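fyi for ur records
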Amino acid sequence: MQNFAHEMLREIYEQPDALRRTLDLYLENGNLKPDFARRLAGWSIPEGEILIAASGSSRHSGLAAEIILEDLCGLAVDVEYASEYSCRGAGDMRHPSVLVLSQSGETSDTLAALREAERRGQKTLAITNAVDSTIAREATVSMPLAAGIERAIPATKSFTCQLAALYLLALYEGSRLDRISEPALGRHITDLSSLCASIEGQLDRWRKQMAALANKFKSASTFLYLGRGIHYAIAREGALKLKEASYVHAEGYPSGELKHGPNALVSDRVPLVVLATVDHSLEASVLRYEKTLHLLREMKAQGARVITIANAGDLEVEDLVSDLVPVLPAPEYLLPVSEVIPLQLFAYFMALEHGVDVDRPRNLSKSVVETDK
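which gave:
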């Protein structure tokens, strides 16, 4: 039994078990549970359009879900800030199904978005970490997580459980629409289930390496986090985690957007954190990876300091960057679950380097309710 100085670190280490509990809600004997499939059928619409409304870390999991649901299921997905959705005024003429994401299930902006969707007669699905929360009760369908109580304000295990639940949602929808074959469905479920043990085996190494990197980069004034495709969502989440946990400024961008302005900031005081993992079995992932390699070559020539999350044993990336953080190979749409965890640990150790109360960052609360606004 390990002793943890802070709840945030404890909750980072709880992620393999939190993921297992969440998967157990929807999987049985290596198959999707049919009872939830029947409930989920009441949410989808024939047009196959989905609007995701969420805030903070939950919105970043929604950005990842946009890619997963579109690529695996052929659905049309938009992601909105929950705080903006209920203020748009005009009705949505497309009338999509609405998916809301909230760790607490009480986030006021997300609850307002849910109620606005229901006022318009739209079907809603809620993914929350609190089965008895207001959002879970009021949605057409509730898809709870089993992350367990999260005491630290920065979201960690609830975020990775959201990613897992959204992947499961894609499997349910893809199966219902006959867009994922039975053999492919079995492979997806096996890959998802094996992720828990894979993460468990990497945590101690990530912990040691990210502690060293936090000490090395503690004087940086700003970080730019970069990712392509589904990994852009993780760049956004890594940057948010650093800001809220350590008070160090960071921004997340699509990798291809660096040279459209942000590159002017890159210097010894403004390092890059680049997501450069790859699934060699997927052509689109290889293309994304090759473009990232090209960027890394340019950044090396420019003299940039670069921390990269990349596949274990990737010597080509290692030769181009200051520091490589290895993750074990995984399918493209599951890589985000692994690669976000070193970024959580980096934020944690940067907070310690800056003397921040990592579990209770200033000006933040676990759930943003109406009285907080």
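Residues 182-216 form the longest helix (35 residues). thats all i got for now
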